[in-house]
Amino acid sequence: MSKTEDFLTKAEEKEIVEAIIQAEKNTSGEIRVHIEENNQKPPLERAQEVFHHLGMDKTGLRNGVLFYVCMQSRTFAVIGDKGINDLVESDFWDCTKDAVVSNFKQGQFKNGLVSGILRAGERLKEHFPFEDDDTNELSNEISRG
């Protein structure tokens, strides 16, 4: 069993993807989850690299949100693109991170990610409601590094 499977089962991964689909159903925003086994960079710095690598900075309204997890260093970051950052309160990402991390500390990795995804989805819906011509600009699948 790989370390990734120790972190999340296939069923839990499916539930996370379902949470992304649910969160994106009412918004033009885009949410991604990226999991790496190891990286030595600070989590925010690495999350920004992954954000750009995944093309999340190329959405039409600049409203992408990335949940980044590094398993070996047990680090986590959540970041949003300029469009959403300009609209949410200054502590929104820290509060979202805290909600996720409090679940992580209890070994509830799936629950932490799902709660953070749904929280971000609510805020995206508020600022970027779904329009009839919206398309899913980015994959909902969990990416790996």
Q: What is the CA–CA distance across the termini?
A: 17 Å
The value of Rg in angstroms is 14 Å
Helix coverage percent: 40-55%
Say what the CATH topology is.
Diaminopimelate Epimerase, Chain A, domain 1
Shape: globular
Question: How would you describe what is shown here?
Answer:
The structure is a single chain. The chain is an alpha/beta fold and 145 residues long. The chain has one domain: Diaminopimelate Epimerase, Chain A, domain 1, CATH 3.10.310.50. 46% of the residues lie in helices and 15% in strands. It has 6 helices and 4 strands, in the order H-H-E-H-E-E-H-H-H-E. It has helices spanning 3-7, 10-24, 43-53, 82-85, 92-104, 109-127; strands spanning 30-36, 64-70, 75-80, 143-144. Strands 3-2-1-4 form a 4-stranded mixed beta sheet, with helices on both faces. Helix 2 packs parallel to helix 6 and helix 5 (92-104) packs antiparallel against helix 6 (109-127). The longest helix is centred in the last third of the chain and has 19 residues, at 109-127. The mean pLDDT is 90.
Q: What is the element layout, followed by pairings?
A:
Elements: H1 3-7, H2 10-24, E1 30-36, H3 43-53, E2 64-70, E3 75-80, H4 82-85, H5 92-104, H6 109-127, E4 143-144
Parallel strand pairs: 1-2, 1-4
Antiparallel strand pairs: 2-3
Helix pairs in contact: 2-6, 5-6
Short description:
The chain is an alpha/beta fold. Helices cover 46% and strands 15% of the residues.
